[in-house]
Amino acid sequence: MADYKGIKGFKVQVLDSDPPNPIVGQVFYNSTTQILKGITAGTGAWASGGNLNTARMVGAGLGIQTASLFVAGETGSILGIVEQYNGSSWTEVGDINTARKANAASGTTAAGLTFGGASGPPAAEQAQTEVWNGSGWTEVNDLNTGRAGLGGAGTATAALAMGGIISTGVTAINESYNGTSWTELNDLNTARDSAASGGTSTSAIFVGGLTTAPLAITETWNGTSWSEVADLNTARSQTGGTAEDATNSIIFGGRTPPGADVAITESWDGTSWTEVADLATARDQFQGSGASNSSALAFGGSTPPFSVSTEEWTLPDTATVTFDVS
Q1: In a domain, 323, yes or no
Q2: Could you tell me the residue range of the domain that residue 34 belongs to?
Q3: Against a cut of 0.90, is the pTM above it?
């Protein structure tokens, strides 16, 4: 029977400590602990983060895991509250000028954008756009089409606003912001609202959502047009999600037919969706932020009732395993 050297062409390394820069597939013997170990791909997990100050749902999230904003939302009433996360706790910062729910956002905690939403009841779709400079909000040029439940992607000066719901129903409208004004571009293939979104203004993703029922549809944006790609494993709407670009994203939680909240998390590699570790708490109508499928934040939402819970997703590049006699 072939041994390790016969398969790999070299002997198992003998090291006095675990390697500082491990490589997937590496096998070594730690002479200090006298344990045979190997390096595998990392496995992601959710962990508890600091609670929000104000429980609420249906707002907008932007930023990365260690620096995020939760913008507006609702409890029993519609709010203009904004909270900022620093990687461990939330602090209330400057309110937006127009209180709203079901809005979208893009950018960072130093330079952000929020747009659209509803100011009801009764629901009144909003076109207002506000820019964040790290300390306060300023209203700038409106969307061409006011809507709620829309998706957002990009930065404060190069953003996308896609989908959503208007007075006549769900819409496929897609608009681009250049730092000054909004321009309508090619529509989504499937009109819907309450989907997960993220990425950049030239490489974005729009996932799941709602027409008359939750959907599994995934569409990606290449800067010119939307293309339908592989479906989610579990159809749902009102999820959290984040994306670095159209090839690297994660979505989590949401509501599935016939109206059940789930904790399911799926990771996208540009080709297909893979189910990974669940959220600790099933929820819908919450917010997500993060840079990629390896680092994300889930906060607020409805469990029910309104939630203050924050969860942090981390996917390390590698993990160390210990071999035993089996």
Answers
A1: no
A2: 4-41
A3: no
